[in-house]
Amino acid sequence: MMPSIASRLRLALLMFFGVYPVITLYIYALFPLTNGWQMWQRTLLLVPLMVLTMVFFVMPSSRLVSAPSSPAASPPPPPDPDQPPLRREGVAGNTHCSGATRTMVEDPARGFSVTA
Q: What residue spans carry the Pro residues bias annotation (predicted)?
C-alpha cells in the first residue's frame, strides 16, 4: 500500500526539522576546523557524519513521532464473542474450514485473513 501524500509531506516536514539543526550544527563545528580546505573536501567530511546521524537518530526519531497516526500502529479490534475462536490449519493457502470453527489463512501479500 502506497503512503498518502499527507503522510509523505508529514515525513518530509519531520525530516526537515530533524536535519536542519544537525547540519547547521555540523557546519558551525567543522568549518572553522577546516579553514582553507576546498568545499568538496569539507563536504567529504560532512556527508558521512550527516548520513550516520540521519540513519541512527533522525529517521528513527521521525518514525516514533509519526507512528501513532499510522493505521498499522493501532491495536487490533477485540474478538467478537459470538464467533467461534480462530484455528490455524495446514500450510498457507492449503487451509480448510470444518464445522463451526473459523480458519485463519496466512497470505504473504496481505497478512492474515479469516475464512468462515
A: 73-84
Residue listed under C-alpha cell 501524500? 5
Mean of pLDDT values over 77-103: 62
* Average pLDDT value over all residues in the chain: 77
Is there a single domain that holds both residue 90 and residue 43? no
Task: Based on the fold, state whether residues 61 and 96 are members of the same structural domain.
Answer: no
Give buried/exposed letters for 87-101 (b at 16+ CB in 10 A, else e): eeeeeeeeeeeeeee
pLDDT digits (tens, 9 = 90+) for 21-41: 999 999 999 999 999 999 999
Please give the backbone phi and psi of residue 29, each rounded to the nearest 5 degrees, phi first: -80, -40
